[in-house]
Amino acid sequence: MLKNNLIAKSVRFALIGGAATAALTTAPTVFAAEEGDKVERIAVTGSRIQRADLETAQPVLSVQREDLLASGLTSVGDFINQLTIGAASINTQSNNGGDGSTRLSLRNLGSGRVLVLVNGRRWVGDGGSVDLNTIPSTIIKRIDILKDGAAAVYGSDAIAGVVNVITRDDFEGVELSAYTGGSERGDGEQDQFDISIGQAGEKGSVYFNASYVKTLPIWAGDRRLSREPVFGTGNTQGSSGTPSGRITFVDDNDNYNNVTLNDDFTYNGTNPIAPTYDADGNITNADENNYHTFTNDDRYNYAPVNYLLTPQERWSAFVQGKYELSDDVRLSSEVLFNHRESSQLLAPAPLFIGPWAGGAQSLDPTVVSAENIYNPFGQDIFAPDEDGDAATVGFIGRRMLEGGGRVFRQTKDTWRFGMALDGDFEFLSQDWGWSLGYSFAENAGTDYAEGKYVTTRIRHALSAECNADPSCVPLNLFGGEGAITKEQLDYISYNEHNTNGDTLINYSANLSGALVELPAGPLGVAVGWEYRREKGFDSPDYIVTSGQTSGNARKATEGSFSEYAYYLELNVPVLADMPFAESLEFDFAIRQTELENSVGLKNDNTSGKVAMAYKPISDVLVRASWSQGFRAPTINNLFGGLSTTFPTVTDPCNDGGGSLPGCSGVPDGYSQPNSQVQGQVGSNSNLTPETSESISAGIVYSPSSLEGFDVSVDYWDIQIDDRITRAGHQQVLDTCAGVAGETNHPVAEFCDQILQRAPGGTPVLFANPSLNLGSLNTSGFDLTMNYGFETSVGDFRVSWDNTYTDNYSVTNNEGVETKFAGEIGLPRLKSNLTLSWGMDDLSATWKTRLITDQRDDCRSAYADFDLCNASETDADGDVTYFRDLGDYYVHDLQVGYYFTELNSRFTLGVNNVFDEEPPLAPNQTNSFDGTQYDGTGRYFYGRLTVNF
C-alpha cells in the first residue's frame, strides 16, 4: 500500500507540474552532491561540454512527457506547433499540396531552419526538413527546445533553434495505453494504442515500445467555412472547369462563344445543336441547343469533396539498449522503424485545353476536330489559321466528374539505427569524457495517384485520326455530366506511381572535460569531429516526367552532399562566490565546416558563438549570446527537377495590361481564364548556403522567498542573409510586367528566362526558381511565468508562456524592405496560459491559447460579399482591401484519476471547449489558415494507461 501511495503521489505531482513545465525556459538544476561524492556531469542541449549545473546561458524550453499527454494530441509535431515559439507549418490539415507529414517551424523561419535531434543525434530529413510524424510520441521522455542559434555546436540548419527529443531510458515494467477521440460532429476520429516494456539491471537497461495511430478524415463540406471555394460567395469563386463544360472560342462566323450546357440537359447520345448569335452576340436558339452564356454562377464548387483533415495510419517499433562494458566504457544503441500510410483527396480533375489553358496547351493547343463525333459546332476548334499560326483565344474546361476524385496516397517507411561508445577517464587530475558515434537513417517512400489523365491520349481522342484508329475511343467534352463513359475514361486515364527516398549517414567523435581548475571553477572544453552525408532522390512516373499528365508534371531529382566539420567549445568561469557575483561565466564555440555536393560545388563556413551567464545573486540569472549560423541548400534546393504547380495569381496583363511596359504584345482581348494559372518551380545547383546572425539577452528571476515561482524575459533578434527562397509566382508576374514599385525587384533580370507568354497572352513558361534572395530579419520577446504552490484543497500550478514578434521583415537585393509582422501567418503575439490542480488521485488542467489579430489580403471581388472588413487607399486613390482576423482564443480541459489499486490512470479531455471557429480568411484555402488554426471544432478524447 505504501508503495502504491508513493506511486500515486509521484504520478500526481508529475501530471500537475508537467502541464506547466512546458513554459520553463531553463532546465532544472541538478541537486548538489554530498561532500566527498562525485558530482554527476551531463551534456545539455546547446552544448557539448558536460557540466553539473543545467542552468546555462542557453534559453532552453524543456517539455516533459506529461505535457504531451495533457495536450490530447497524438502527433509530437502538432504539439510543438501549439507552443508559442511554434509557427505556421504544413500538417495533416494540408490537403492540397500536403503529403501526410507534419513539419515544424520555429519563430516563423520555416521547417528547413530547425535542427531536429533525437538523443542529441541528427534526425533524417524528408525532402529538406524533418517530418515529426516519423518520431512516435509514445517513446518521448522529454523534449528540449533550444531557442537560440546553435550552428557552432551542431552545424547546418540550427538557425531558428534546435529540437532535441530525449527518449525514455529509465522505464521499468510494462505499460499499456489506449487512446480514442473524435470531434463533436462525429468525424476526425483518432485512435492510439501502444505498449512499453522496460528492464534495468546493474550493467544496463533495455526499453521497447510499439505504437499504432489511426486518424480518420474530416470533409471540407462538413464545416461552415470550408464548404465553398470562398466562404459566403457560393459558386462564384469556383472553377471554370465544370461538369457541364465551359466552352470559349471564336467560331467560323467570328462569334465569340462563352457558353455552357444548361443544368437540366441530359445526354441522350446525340449532339446538341451549336448556338447561333444575333448582332449583339446573344444566343438566339437557346431553347433548341441547351446552351446558355457562362456566368460566375455556373462555376463548379469543388470544396465539399476535399478533405479538411487528411487520414493516416502509423505503426512504429523502437528499441533502445545500454550496457556497461567496463566501469569506464559504455555501449548504447537504438533502432526505430516507423511506417506511415496517408492520403489526400481533391475534387475530380479539371481538364483544360486550348490557348488559354496555360502551359504547353497555350503554344500548341489541342484541336477538337470537326470529325469528333461529339463536336456540335461543325468546325475544328483551336485549329491553326491559314498561315499555320496557332490559335490564341479560348479554352474548354471540363470537370471530369465521371472519373471520381483525385486520390493521392503515400507509403513512407523510416528506419534509423544509432550506436555509440562513450567513456570516462581522468587526466591531470581532471575528469574527461569521450564518445564515438555512428547513425544511419533512411526514408523510403512510394506515392500513388488516381484520377489523372494522359494529355497525349486526350489529344488523340479529340482528333480526326481517332475515328480511323480501332484502339482509340473518341472523347465527349460536350455532353454534360455523365456523358463520359467508362470506355472513354479507361482510354485517357492512368494510375500514377512515384518513388522517393532520403538517406543520412553520420559519424562523430567527441572529447570533453576540464583543462585546468581556475579560481572560479574548472575550465571546460569540448572538441570534436563530425562527418555527415545526405543523399536523396525522387523518381516520378514516366507519364509525369514526360509532361503527359493532366496533373503536376515534374522531372526526376537525384543528388547528394557531404559535410566535414571540426568544432571547439570552451566554458570559462570568471567569478564565483563573490559579492554581487555569485557566478560569471562565458561560453565560446567555433565550428569549421566544409561542404561539397555531387556536382562538385564546394563551400566553406565558419560559425562562432559567444554566450554569457551571470548571477549577481542566487535568485537572478542574466544571460546573453551572440551566434553565427548557416543552412546548406537541401538536395531539393540544388537538384530538384522542374515541377508544375498551379498558383493562385492575378495577371497584371489582363486586357492587354494597359501601359505596363512588360505587357507589350499581349492582346487587348486576353482575359485570365482562371485565378489558378499553370506555373513551374525549380531548383538551382549554384545556390550557396544562407548565413545568419543571432542575438539574445534575458533575465531569469527565481526568488528564494517565494518558493515555486520563476519568471524569465528574453529578447531575440535573428538576421538571415542570402536566404534560400523563391520570389513567388505573383511577384514574378508583377515584376516582369513592370507593376509600379516592383521594377527593381531582384528577379527582374531573369524575366526572359522565367516568364514567357503564348501569343494569346497566357503565361506558358512561368518559373519560380530557388534563389539566394536578399535577407530576412525577425525579433521579439519571450515572457514566461510559473508558480506552483500547495494548499489544503490541492496543489496548484500556473504557467504563462508568451512570444511577441516585434519585427518580421524581408529585404530584397536592392535594399527595399517589406514588413510582415501582423500579416496572415505571422501573429504579433502567441500566448498559452495553463492552470493545473491536483488533490489525492484526482487532477485537472485548463489551458487557454491565444493567437492575436492578423491581416489577410482580400481581393476586391470579395468586397461585394462583405468579406473585407478593412481597406487602405494610396496617394493615387487605389484601394487595397484586407480582412482583419481578430484575436483567437481556444480553451482545452483535461481531468484525470489515478486508480491506486490498479496502478492505472484514466483521463478525459475536451479540446476547444467552446467550439471556437477559425477566423475567416477568404484568401486562404478553406477560407482559413490551416497551418495555424484547427478546423476540427470541439474534440473529445479519453486515455487509459495501465502499468504492471
Automatic annotation (TrEMBL):
It is a multi-pass membrane protein. SUPFAM superfamilies: Porins. Belongs to the TonB-dependent receptor family. Residues 659-690 are annotated as: Disordered. The keyword Signal applies. GO terms for cellular component: cell outer membrane. InterPro entries: Beta-barrel_TonB, Beta-barrel_TonB_sf, Plug_dom, Plug_dom_sf, TonB-dep_rcpt-like. It holds the Pfam family Plug. Residues 54-162 form the TonB-dependent receptor plug domain. The keyword Signal applies. Keywords: Cell outer membrane, Membrane, Receptor, Signal, TonB box, Transmembrane, Transmembrane beta strand, Transport. It is found in: Cell outer membrane. This is TonB-dependent receptor. Residues 671-690 have a biased composition (Polar residues). It comes from the Bacteria. Residues 410-913 form the TonB-dependent receptor-like beta-barrel domain. Residues 1-32 form the signal peptide.
